[in-house]
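Whether sequence alone determines local backbone shape is best considered at the level of individual chains. When preparing material for the folding task, we compiled for one chain both its residues and its backbone structure tokens. No coordinates are needed to read the tokens, only the vocabulary itself. For completeness, the protein is quoted in full, as a sequence line and a line of structure tokens:
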Amino acid sequence: MKIPSEKEKFSERLKLAISVKYSNSLKNSEIATKFNLRHPNEPITQQAVYKWLNGLAIPAFDKIQTLAEWLNVKPEWLRYGILENEKVDVIDETLIGLIATLSDSQKRAILQLILSFQEQ
């Protein structure tokens, strides 16, 4: 079993954050447009989005901050996978690793299941 790289882990967190915010999948061009409307610095391209979503690159921190604000997640979680002052135990780390291997539709199903637990 291949261990995901940091870029791949970032990609999975970004995909998850986007899928939570938008129930339907967005095209790379839509993500780039929505990002560029919010980011005060240089715009990004569809190719940059492709690299982010396919585990080929991690954006600079200013872009991570813009993504995090837009997607309502913590920048630390988006970049590193943990929340500020949070320790990850073995169970959490195992779950994260297993979830990263699932398809997008399976991840959405797991997300819905977890959200239903929080509503109880």
